[in-house]
Design goal:
The protein is of the alpha/beta class and about 280 residues long. The chain folds into 2 domains: about 90 residues, Rossmann fold, CATH 3.40.50; about 120 residues, Rossmann fold (3-Layer(aba) Sandwich). About 40% of the residues lie in helices and about 15% in strands. The strands form 3 sheets. The protein has a 6-stranded parallel β-sheet. Strands 3-2-4 form a 3-stranded parallel β-sheet, sandwiched between helices. Strands 9-10 form a two-stranded antiparallel sheet. Strand 9 and strand 10 form a beta hairpin. Helix 6 runs parallel beside helix 7. The longest helix is centred in the N-terminal third of the chain and has 23 residues. It is globular, with a radius of gyration of 19 Å. The chain starts with a strand and ends in a 5-residue tail after the last helix. Bound molecules: nicotinamide-adenine-dinucleotide (NAD). The site of nicotinamide-adenine-dinucleotide (NAD) has 23 residues, from helix 9.
Length: about 280
């Protein structure tokens, strides 16, 4: 039985935050202002309120200025676009984040597309996804970028490996596959229409699971020595858990991210680093 290496995303994020804080302080001294992130929240979704609070706290830890814009749930699409346009024009705002989900009467895609690519720290506008997919990345979407940084930190070389990404959303699966491809992995994408998912994942050296189904996969889905990044996040009575039954994988996987404390903390860290990059900072 081999020991499974726990890929401690929380510790990696903390270490990176300390480095970022120093770089931001230097930037602020030289430029006479801190990098700025504007967070727009529409309505009162309780989960969104918590996410926004965490993002603002993380900004403060890194020395990034945050601007919190709370808009009523009755906001019209035109007024949302007006608010985004104003932020697009501000010189003290380097990144704009529209917290999702938006109330049902608002079109999320149109709202996100309103953010200028140069001010999109989530990397989710078609401008930034286009740059990523054509190999001219400005900023990569935070969650898959965070997974790559965890692999980098633990010196998990993905080049030439068989990597399977489960899930094909614009926010995680698709950019994840692209980043692995750029790092020279041989990439397979699996999704809800894949026949015999476990037969596909059992061939993989690296599996990134971004499905959104609590405890979907266990030991039978993985070959011995696999590296697993579990992106899934589910809140239950016993706290957070992921898409993988990680307790079955101890001694079987070579390495895996825990939930909580794996991919989640890295997502926020990447948001801060992307904001710093958009401000012109180097990290
Ligand atoms: P999504 O619902 O947009 O996409 C889910 C994907 O999984 C789809 O592409 C679908 O084809 C695939 N899928 C669904 N059922 C499947 C099945 N049975 N077998 C194989 N594939 C299947 O979700 P998303 O936004 O990509 O998020 C996925 C999960 O990651 C969610 O649990 C979400 O909460 C979590 N998430 C976590 C973070 C983080 O920071 N840790 C960030 C974003 C998303």
């Amino acid at each position: 039985m081999t020991n499974t290496l726990i890929l401690d995303g929380k510790a990696v994020a903390q270490a990176r935050r300390a480095i970022l804080r120093e770089k931001v302080a230097e930037f602020t001294k030289t430029k006479g202002r801190a990098p700025g992130l504007a967070v727009v929240i529409v309505g009162h979704d309780p989960a969104s309120q918590i996410y926004v609070k965490n993002k603002i706290k993380a900004c403060a830890e890194a020395g990034i200025e945050s601007f919190h814009l709370e808009k009523p749930a009755t906001l019209t699409q035109a007024d949302l676009h007006k608010a985004i346009d104003e932020l697009n024009a501000r010189t003290d705002v380097d990144g704009i984040l529209v917290q999702l989900p938006l109330p049902k009467h608002l079109n999320e895609t149109e709202a996100l597309e309103r953010i200028r690519g140069e001010k999109d720290p989530d990397g989710l506008t078609s401008a930034n996804l286009g740059l990523l997919f054509s190999g001219r990345t400005r900023v990569a979407p935070c969650t898959p970028f965070g997974v790559m940084k965890i692999f980098e930190h633990y010196k998990i070389d993905v080049a030439g490996k068989n990597a399977v990404v489960i899930g094909r959303s614009n926010i995680v699966g698709k950019p994840m596959a692209q980043l692995l491809l750029q790092a020279n992995a041989t990439v397979t994408m699996a999704h809800s229409k894949t026949h015999d998912l476990e037969a596909v994942t059992r061939e993989a050296d690296i599996v990134v699971v971004a499905v959104g189904q609590r405890h979907l996969l266990g030991k039978s889905a993985f070959k011995k020595g696999v590296v697993i990044a579990d992106v899934g996040m589910h809140r239950g009575e016993k706290g957070l858990c992921g898409d993988v039954r990680l307790d079955e994988l101890h001694g079987w996987a070579q390495a895996m991210t825990p939930v909580p404390g794996g991919v989640g903390p890295m997502t926020i860290q990447m948001l801060l680093e992307n904001t710093f990059r958009l401000a012109g900072g180097k990290i």
